[in-house]
Amino acid sequence: MPEGGVSNNRATLYIVATPIGNLDDISLRAIRVLREVDRIAAEDTRHSRRLLQHHGIDRPMLALHEHNERQAVKKVLQLLEQGQNLALISDAGTPLISDPGFPLVRACREAGIRVSPLPGPSALIAALSVSGLPVDSFCFHGFLPRSPGPRRDRLQALAAETSTQVFYESSHRILHALRDMVEVLDAGREVCVARELTKQYEDVMQGSLAEVLAMVEADGMRQRGEFVIVLAGAPARETNLPSAEAMRVLDVLLDELPLKQASALAARITGEKKNLLYRLALERR
To answer: In whole angstroms, what is the distance from residue 213 CA to residue 219 CA?
Structure first.
């Protein structure tokens, strides 16, 4: 293989990270590979063409997005099996990280086709690096559910997690997500909300959930763009288990009520912590 370039010996699918905002945030190797592959599969060809033109890259493109992924995977596999080299790019950042591409990579692996990563920009890692929160252990959840009920249930299920929790969010739902976090979690829990990273209006907001929610509510500009929410983990879990009586009450209520309602009512009756009972109820189910 030419150093840093495209293989001449074996068809390869290159997973190429592209800028999340600033068009100059791309590696020299990524530019070289994008210039040398036979085709580029892009989430949105019109969006990606601006990046390619900026760096003098002129290669044939094909669309691969969530609405045509099944058909596009067949096409890409066919081209690879014919000996062509292809690159997969998303609209921004590292492909497959809350972007299309997983079925394609999976299919290539199953077909014995080489898949090679070209690391680079990722909004997830960029936000973690400036969050000021612990990064020795973190969990990435992508986008929260769109509907209020499932979104709150998801947050409740994560309430006792002690590692840093990371979410992507859109401008349409950022206020709803932060309000639900304040309602479901401790309003004083530390959070970093990074908006429009590497772009002209980059904005990193830090403070308690209540404080950051107030910042976003007070400024319409801060409700626009693409967001990464980096949420501090919960304090270390208590090792003491609830009393036997609390567990008996929880079990009785679980027979009659939904999990969330049963654990909340059991906490009110017994005085035990709701999050602890909810976690134990999840385990029992």
So the answer is: 10
Domain definitions of the chain by residue range: 12-121, 124-231, 244-284
- Inter-CA distances, 181 with 68, 125, 129, 154, 189, Å: 34, 22, 22, 10, 9
Spatial separation of the C-alpha atoms in residues 285 and 268, rounded to whole Å: 20
Token reading at 228: 């990464």
- Distance in angstroms (rounded) separating the CA atoms of residues 38 and 229: 37
| Among the listed residues 155, 97, 163, 85, the one whose alpha carbon sits nearest the alpha carbon of residue 125 | 97
CATH of domain 12-121: 3.40.1010.10
pLDDT, tens digit (0-9, with 9 covering 90-100), for 192-251:
999 999 999 999 999 999 999 999 999 999 999 999 999 999 987 555 678 888 888 999
Q: Which two tokens stand for residue 14?
A: 């290159």
Going by their DSSP bridges, the two strands 226-231 and 190-195 should be labelled as: antiparallel
pTM of the model: 0.80
Q: What are the tokens at 43?
A: 């989430």
Please, which residues bridge with residue 86 across strands? 13, 39
Q: Residue 262 in contact with residue 285, Cβ under 8 Å?
A: no
The pLDDT > 70 percentage for the chain reads: 96
Which residues sit opposite 12 in a β-bridge? 114
